[in-house]
Amino acid sequence: MTIIREQEIWAMALWGDREHGEDAVEFIAGKVLHFEHLGDERGQRLWVQVARRYAQLKDIMNAERSWLGPIDDIEDERESFPANMKPYSGTDRGRRS
């Protein structure tokens, strides 16, 4: 498989996640079944590949979330930095405390 094709498949998995959210699994499975019903092996094979990438994507996202913890906690921690060690926010460019 070419790199470009692999990127397209990952893009389809990401699109499914963005557009369908919690229903992405059902959407992708529906595509697999649709092409199976039509007898379109290439279409079915494509969507099986998308399903595999989507599963990998969710595994990666879940692993990162468990490692990072809730995103809200990260924002709360910004407030606990000492004044002279606040993380760069992008708004204090050129100013020194």
In short:
With 97 residues, the chain is mainly α.
Q: Could you walk me through the main structural features you see in this protein, from its secondary elements to its overall organization?
A:
- The chain has one domain.
- It contains four helices and no strands.
- The protein has helices at residues 3-20, 24-38, 41-68, 71-78.
- Helix 1 crosses helix 2.
- It is globular, with a radius of gyration of 21 Å.
- The mean pLDDT is 80.
Overall helicity: over 70%
Helical segment tally? Answer: 4
Rg over CA atoms, rounded to whole Å, is 21 Å
Please write the string of helix (H) and strand (E) elements: HHHH
Shape: globular
What is the mean pLDDT? 80
Largest sheet: none
Q: Got a strand count?
A: 0
Strand content: under 5%
Q: Ends: how far apart? A: 54 Å
Structural class: mainly alpha
* Tally of discrete structural domains: 1
- Ranges where pLDDT stays below 50 over 5 or more residues in a row are none
Oligomer: single chain
